[in-house]
Structures are given as structure tokens and as C-alpha cells.
Amino acid sequence: MLDIQKITNSPDEIKEMLDKRNFKDNTLIDRLNEIIQKKREIQVEVENLRSERNQVSKEIGSIKSKGGDITELSASMKEVGQKIKDLETSLDVETSKLNELNLGLPNLIDEKVPYGKSAEDNVFLREFGSKKEFSFEPKPHYEIGEGLKILDFERGVKLAGARFYTYRGIASKLERALMNFMLDTHSNEHGYEEVWVPILVNDDCMLTTGQFPKFQDEYYRLDKDGLSLIPTAEVPLTNLYQNEIIPEDKLPISIVAHTPCFRREAGSYGKDTRGLVRVHQFQKVELVKFSKQEESEAEHQKMLENAENILKKLGLHYRVMLLCSGDMSHASSKTYDIEVWMPGLGRYMEISSVSNFKDFQARRGKIRYKSKQGNQLVHTLNGSGLAIGRTLAAVIENYQTEDGNFEIPEVLKKWLR
User: Cis omega (within 30 of 0) on the bond before 386?
Assistant: First the structure.
């Protein structure tokens, strides 16, 4: 959802943005402006009729007080009243059309984001460490896990179907250790407040963060209750301040939560069908910030460093990529991906996306802050800190040994006691 004034005052800029995002409907902005103009015309007509009705009502009152005949004027006012009702109905229809189209628009692109059509056009920024060398052929995490009988994909399928899994023994403990390690690091060292949130949310929450209405079919929904299983803790965390005005001196607000996450993975048929890379249920530690507009870029960099620090402490080689215009989520204005090296898979794997949404989500959720200039929309940011299952897979692959086992990173040992 974009600012209506931006749509009307800078239509060419919006069209250029849509083109950079590979948005196929090139008539959308023109249709939006037609609806906006029609709404304005209806509103002017309604206001004129209301003014006429108020004036005539005064005349009726004056004539009536003098004992005059008001039959004709009363009849004409009934017609005016009906016209106003009909126009208000038309106004509601046009407002609904406007909201529906506007909710389908992606966010404006930050000026620092490079133009590109796909992930191949993303820009490499930096890396930490180097690819670990092995004296043997490294295995993917799922082969190691199945060999040790700590990753059980067959029973996951038996319980819930494809792309579900179960942990046993040390894998279960390692998942819990990673969760506590990440939460403690972010809360004790990086200054985030730990929060516990529901994993079921209402439609307004999904609308605020951009999952609804455009991508509604991609998520698990309980229609009977009007609730959805969250795809990430970003949804409940961001909506903690829905329809609220935050005091300026409380910003920035930095919060962190661990939750299970649920995604249908629609459109991913045939991709990463084995292992923990692309599954329907996974655990994640999520970072969310609420910032003043002029400070969000600096907070974005801090959040990226916070997510990177987890991988540094684990001693895992990774690289940071700046996503191009064609590879960002529709809600993001600027996104960095952190990709960890997976020696068994022989490729980099995205383990965190850190995004600045600017005022895109705040406009949908009416999240504002009180400043000397009046109430303003906050900027919202979020990032994985990190995806736990993928981190577990990265630890298994990077710390594997020739005998089919793997070592535990030193930093995690105190959480395994």
C-alpha cells in the first residue's frame, strides 16, 4: 500500500519502480488514478448536495415558522437525500476498488538498490572466513543425519506428509541449544527485548506485514477461526504496535522472538526436496525494529551486523548480498541476504534476509510515532537471526568428520550441558 499523494503526484516514478520489479500490469497506476479522480468528483458532488440540503433546510424552517407551504421543498430534499445515499454507495465502491488495487502494489525501492531481474543480478558485498577444506568428500547434512539416526525424514512424512521431518537425540538438543544461543546473544549483547508471541494471528496482522491479500494462498489458514499460522515471527512482532502511536523517545524499539514458522512453499515443487533447506515447518529467531524515519538506514545496518555476528560466533563461512530490484520481496524497500556456505550441498544457502520496509507496513497497520512535527509513520525492519533448522544443517555440514559424525562448535557447548 502506497501513499495516495505519491500515486497521483508521481505516477511515472511509480511506473518505473513497477518495471524494475518485473511487475507485469503496466496499466495499474493509470487505473488507480482514474479511481482517485472519480472518488474526488463524487466527494465534491456529495459536499455540494449536502451544502444545498443544509441551505434549503434553513429555508424550510423559516417558511414553516411563517405558516407557509413546504410541500414542494420537502419533496425536493427527499430527492437530494436519496442522491446523497446513492453517491455515498458509489463512493464506497470506488474506495473498495482503490484499496484492493493499492494493497497489491509493492513497496517503493530504496535508491541504493541495484536494478536487476533475478538473483543472478544480486550484488556481492563482503564475506567472512573462507570455505572449509576437507581431506574427504563432504556429505550433505541429510546423509550425515540419517546415518547417525538423528534426522528422520520418513517418520516426518508419515506424520504430516512431504517436507516434514523429525529430530532425534543430539539433533533435538542442538536445535534447542541454537535457539537459546541466538536468543541470549541478541538480548544480552545486541540490546533486543525478548518477546513471546502467538503463532496464530488474525487477517489484519497478515495484511499489515504484506502477506495478505496478494499471497494469501501461500500460508496455512484456519478458516473456521479466521486465523493463520505465522510464516515468521515478523507478523505478530510487527503487529504488537498496530493502531498505536509510539512516543518518539521510545524509538528505536528492538525486539526478538523465537517461534515455529509455517509455509506452504507454493511454487517450490522439485526444489530442495531433501533435507532441512525447504520445509513446511521450521524454527526461527526473528529480529524486528521500529525506527524513526531518518534513523532506519542506520538501524538496518545494525540489524545486519547482529545477524552476521551469530554466524561469526559459530565460525561459519558466509557472504552478504544486496538484493536487486527484481529479487526483493514486494514489501521490502531494501534487503540484504546472508548466505552460509554448505560444503555438502556444494553451494551457498540463504540463512537470513534483513529488510527495511520503511513506512510500507506501518501505513497498512497504522503504526505511528509522536514527534514535534506531528504523528508520523514509523519505519519497520526485520531479519532472521537466524533460521534455526538451516543453521543446524550448516553446522552439521561444516563441522562434519570423516567417520560420518560431526563436531559441536565451542560456542554452543554450554547450552548442551
Answer: yes
Do 90 and 147 share a domain, yes or no? no
Other beta carbons within 10 angstroms of residue 115's beta carbon come to 12
CB 329 within 8 A of CB 395: no
CATH number at residue 380: 3.30.930.10
Reported as a single tens digit per residue, the pLDDT across 2-28 is 999 999 999 999 999 999 999 878 799
Q: Over 80: is that where the pLDDT of 267 sits?
A: no
d(CA 400, CA 404): 7
Residue 205 has pLDDT above 60, yes or no: yes
- 170: cell is 543430539
Region 144-158: mean pLDDT is 96
What confidence tens digit (pLDDT) does each residue in 104-145 have?
Answer: 999 999 999 999 999 999 999 999 999 999 999 999 999 999
Within a domain: residue 268? yes
Window from 15-29, 172-186, 264-278, 382-396 with minimum mean pLDDT: 264-278
Q: Which domain holds residue 35?
A: 4-103
Give, in order, the Cα–Cα distances in Å from 102 to each of 2, 6, 97, 293, 319: 7, 12, 8, 22, 35
| Strands 368-371 vs 245-247: parallel, antiparallel or unpaired | parallel
In-domain check, residue 343: yes
Q: Which residues are CB-contacts of 362 (< 8 A; sequence separation ≥ 6)?
A: 368, 377, 378, 379, 380
> What kind and span of H or E run contains 54?
helix 28-65
Spatial contact of 339 and 123, defined as CB atoms under 8 Å apart: no
**Pair (138, 86) in one structural domain:** no
